[in-house]
Amino acid sequence: MKKYFTQHFLPCLCASVAILLASTMQAQEATQPLNANWQFTESGKNNWLAATVPGTVHTDLLAHGKIPDPYIGTNESQVQWVETKAWEYKTTFNASEEIWKSKHKELVFEGLDTYAFVYLNDSLILTGENMFLEYRIDVTKHLKKTKNNLRIVFHPASELIEKNKTLAAHKNLPGGDRVYIRKAQYQFGWDFGPRLVTAGIYKKIWLRGINELDVKNINLKTEKIKNDTAWLEVNFDLNYLTKGQKEYVIEVSDKSKNYLKKQFSVNETTSGMGYKFAIPKPKLWWANNMGKPYQYEFTIKIYSGNDILEKKIKYGIRTIELRQEKQGNGKSFTFFLNGEPVFMKGANWIPSDNFTPRITSEKYYSLIKSAQQSNMNMLRVWGGGIYETEDFYNDCDSLGIMVWQDFMFAGGVYPANEYFMNRLRVETQSQFLRLSPHACIVAWCGNNEIEEGWNNWGWQNEMKISSSDSLKMWNDEKVIFNDFIPGIIHSRDSNAIYIPSSPSTGWSHPEAYKSGDVHYWGVWWGMEPFSSYDNHVGRFMSEYGFQGMPPLSSFALFNPDGTFSFSDPAFQSHQKHPKGYETINTYMQRDYPVPDEFSDYVYVSQVVQRDGVSRAIEAHRKAMPYCMGTLFWQYNDCWPATSWSSVDYYGQKKLLQYALKDLYAPVLVSVTERNDSVLLYVVNDDTISHKGLLAFAWMNLKGETIRTSFTPTTIYTGRSSMVFGFEKKQLLDTLDPENGVLHLIFSYENNKSVTTNYYFANTKSLALAKDPGLMSDIVPVAGKAGTYTVTLRTVSLAKNVYLSFNDPKATFSDNGFDMLAGETKDVIITTSLSLEQLKAGMRIQTMNSLQGQ
User: What is the pLDDT of residue 806?
Assistant: First the structure.
C-alpha cells in the first residue's frame, strides 16, 4: 500500500495549480486583478445583481436584502435554502496591454468555494472541486484583447458530495456527508457554530502574463545553524517556455549584503531548483517573550540580461525540533526553538467568521496582537476550519506567535480512493509550499481527533460497521495520515515536524498522560470537577476548555429585538452544544451563586469559565518540564454565540482573556493543596533565572493579617519550583476557610513582582460582605481622547470586580479581578462614550452582591 501511494501520488505539483508568494515583478511577469464589476444570480433566474469579489453568495444576498442576517436572532434557520441552489457569477473585462503582449496568459483563481464550473468566452476552462486550492489555468488560446466574458457557475455542495460518494468504497462514513468534500468542515455546523454552507468567489482572481520563464513556489528554508552560521536554501519550481537553452543568474540579498550569486542553465525540461547559501552571525527569529522575532527582508532576483524577475520575501531564520525522548514509562513532548526548550502557552484557533472573506486584516491583527499581549506563544490552527490567509501567518511571524498547523481534517473518517487522493496530493503540496516559509509554523498535524474518535467514540457500533469494513476504513486513514501526507511534506523538507493525529491517545486512557499530546475533556464532557485538572496532566495539553457566555453588549448586537432571558429563542439558537447551558449551570451550582437576573448570570458564567481554565493552566505549568505545553479550547469565534472562546465574535474579551496575561506570564505563582499540606510554587519559563522573595499573608476578608512568611529563593529558568510548604491546619486553625484569603507575592529584580490570591472555600461559601464599600472615580486621561482612568477603592475584599457599560468596542486594561481590603486599583478604558455617558452607564458587578441570592 505504501509503495502504491508513493508511486502514484508523490510526483511534483501539476502545472495547473500552484501558490505564489507575495512579490514584485519586472519584465518576466505581468498581473491584472479581476475583482471588480461582478454580478450574480440564482441559476436559471437571470436576476442579475451586483456582487462583491472576494465574497460569498450569502453576503451578496445579504447586501441586497434578499436574506436576513443569519447571525441575528433565529435567522440562521431562514437561510438554509441558499445551499440548495446553484449560483452564477459573471464579469466582462479587457486584457491590459502588458498582459496581451505576453506570450503566455493564465487566469489565477486563489480560492473558489467549492463546486465551480468556470467559462471564459463560453469555453469551459476549469471544474473546481476543492475549496483549498489555487487554480492557475492557461488561457492563451481563449483570451481576447477586449470584451472577455468570464462566468462561474457554483453548484450546490451536496451535488459534489453525492458525486464523490459514488466513487468511494464506503457510502456512509463517520463524520457524515461533509467528509466527502474538500471544503471547510465547520460550515456544515459544529458545536460552536452554525450550519452555513457557503459558495462563491471567496478569494481574489487575476490575470497573469508570462514570457519565457515561469517561476513558482519560491521559498526559503533553514537547513541548519552551526558555528554561528546559518545555512539556508532557496528553492523554486521553474518552467522554461521557450525552445533551446539559456543562461540565467539567481541572486539573494538583503539591504546590506549579497549572500548568493549563481549562474545556471535552463531548458524545456528544467523543473525544481535549489541553491544553498550561508549567513554568518545570523539574527534569529524568536517566539514571544524569548527575544525579537527578527525577519530578514530578502530580495531574490532571477535574470538574464534585461529580463528580470524579482521577489521580496520576509523570512525568519530559526530551527525547530520536537523531541519525544523516552522518560520512565513514557516519552517527552518538548519543542526546542533555536536549541532552547519552550513551554508552549496558547490556544486553539478557529476561523474568525463563517463567511471567511469578511475576516479583515485588521481583525486578524487585533486578535493576534491580543494573543501576544496575553503572553501567548502558540496558536493551534484547528483542522475543521481553513488554511488561513497570508495576513494571519504574517502577523504571527511579526509578533512571535508559533503555529501548530493542522491539515483540514476533523472528527470523521475520510475516503482514500484514487480520485480523492489525487486531489489531496495537490492540496497538501500546495498548502505546504505556501505556508512552510513562515517562521511561525513549527509543527504540522494530519488531523483533529480522528484517531481519538475511531478508538473511543463508538463509531463502529453506532454506524453498525462490519469488521471487514472497519479494518479497511482504518487502513485508509493510516495511509492518508501516516504515509501519504508526511511523504509529501518530507519530500520537500525532511526536517518538517509532523504529527499524524491530535490527540495521540484518548483522555480516558492512563497512557494518554505519559506520551504525546492530550485533549482532556473530563471537565465539560465528562462533568468532572475542576480539581480533576490537577491529576490529568499530560506531556502536552493541546485541548481542554469550558464555555462562557459573551458580554451583555454582544447579546444586544445579535438579538436587538429580543429579550435578555433564558427563554428567548435567539438565546437558545446561539448555543450549539446540545447540553451547553445545562453544563454551565451544573458547574455554577457546584461552586458559585446562581443568579436569577440574566445579566448577573452572564457575568457568573464568565467567572466559572475563567476559574476552570485558570486551574488547568496552573496545573500544566506547575508540572513543567513533564508537561511542556498548554493550549486551551478555544481562542476566537466564527459567529456570535455562547462558546468556549476567550474573545467573542465582536472582539470583546471575556474574563478568561483578561486573566491570561498573568496566567501566561513568564513567572507565575501558584498554590497547591495536597492532602493536608499547602504547597507554594513559583514557575519560571523566562529566558533567565530570577532571585527574589516569596511572601504570603493569610488574612481575613476585612484585611486583618493573621500570619505572614517570607522566603528568599532563586527560581531557575525552565523550572517549576515548590518553594515553601506547610500543614493546612496552621492556617485553618486560626481562621475558618470561608473567612480567609491567602495572598502570595513573588518579588524579584528590577522591582518586578507577580501575585495571586487563593481561597480554601468555593466562591459561594465565602463570607463576603454584601457591600464591600467599593467606590469608583472616573477621570479623562490628559491628551488621549476617549481614554479614561477608573480608580477603584474597597473597604473589604471585593470578589471578581467586573466593569461594563453599553459600548461593544470599549477596551479595558483589566477586568474581573479581586481587590483585597483597603486596596486601590486603576483601570484604563477607551470608549466612544462621553464622560457623562460613562458615569451614567458604568456598572460594577461583584460576587459580593450575589451572595445569599
Answer: 86
Buried b (16+ CB within 10 A) or exposed e, 205-225: bebbbbbbbbbbbbbbbbbeb
- Note the pLDDT tens digit of each residue in 411-439: 999 999 999 999 999 999 999 999 999 99
The CA-CA-CA angle for residues 109, 115, 117, to 5°, reads 65
Q: How confident is the model at residue 852 (pLDDT cuts 50, 70, 90)?
A: low
Residue tagged 522575532 (cell numbers): 293
Q: Phi and psi (nearest 5°) for 159?
A: -65, -40
Phi–psi pair at 656, nearest 5 degrees: -60, -45
Which whole number is the average pLDDT over 447-470? 93
Query: Which phi and psi angles does 189 have, rounded to 5°?
Result: 100, 135
**Helix, strand, coil shares, percent, the chain, to 5:** 25, 35, 40
What single-letter DSSP state applies at residue 772?
A: -
| Strand-pair category, 752-758 with 811-812 | unpaired
User: Cell triple for residue 46?
Assistant: 437571470
Taking the C-alpha atoms of residue 774 and residue 849, their distance in angstroms, rounded to an integer, is 11
* 364 in Cβ contact with 392 (< 8 Å): yes
Which secondary-structure segment (H or E) carries 688?
none
Do residues 629 and 333 touch, judged by C-beta distance below 8 A?
Answer: yes
Question: Could you tell me which of 815, 824, 814, 811 has the C-alpha nearest to residue 784?
Answer: 811
Contacts with 173 (C-beta within 8 Å, 6 or more apart), sequence order: 179, 180, 412, 413, 414, 415, 473
pLDDT value at position 3? 40
Give the largest CA-CA distance in the chain: 93
CB 352 within 8 A of CB 367: yes
Per the omega criterion (within 30 degrees of 0), is the bond before 625 cis? yes
| Residue 454 three-state SS | helix
**Among residues 527, 524, 518, 528, which one has the least CA distance to residue 631?**
518
Instruction: Reduce the DSSP state of residue 302 to 3 states and report it.
Output: strand
Q: What does the alpha-carbon distance between residue 365 and residue 368 come to, in Å, rounded to a whole number?
A: 5
Are β-strands 38-42 and 49-51 bridged in parallel, bridged antiparallel, or unpaired? antiparallel
Measured CA angle at 515 (ends 510, 519), to 5 deg? 70
Strand order in the sheet with 517-519: 498-499, 441-445, 402-406, 378-381, 344-349, 629-632, 540-543, 517-519
- Inter-CA distances, 552 with 49, 446, 571, 650, 812, Å: 37, 38, 12, 12, 15
CA distances from 404 to 379, 412, 785 (A): 6, 20, 39
Beta bridge partners of 112: 201
What's the rounded Cα separation, in Å, for the pair 180 and 158?
Answer: 10
Residue 518's nearest CA partner among 721, 380, 668 is 380
- What does the alpha-carbon distance between residue 650 and residue 559 come to, in Å, rounded to a whole number? 13
| Alpha helix stretches (DSSP H) within 22-111 | 57-63, 97-101
Dihedral sign for Cα atoms in the order 472, 477, 482, 485: positive
- Least Cα distance to 678 among 727, 713, 744 occurs for 727
CA 605 to chain centre: 23
pLDDT digits (tens, 9 = 90+) for 52-108: 999 999 999 999 999 999 999 999 999 999 999 999 999 999 999 999 999 999 999
Q: What is the pTM of this model?
A: 0.94
Q: What is the mean pLDDT of residues 11-40?
A: 60
Place of cell 517570607: 710
User: What grid cell was written down for 181?
Assistant: 468534500
* Residue 425: strand, helix, or coil: helix
Please report how many Cα atoms fall inside a 13 Å half-sphere around the Cα of residue 212, on the Cβ side. 16
Whether cis (ω within 30° of 0) applies to the bond prior to 356 is no
Question: Is the pLDDT confidence value at 444 over 50?
Answer: yes
Here the cell at position 649 is 465574535
Confidence at 626, pLDDT banded by 50, 70, 90: very high
Q: Per-residue pLDDT tens for 295-332? A: 999 999 998 887 888 899 999 999 999 999 999 889 99
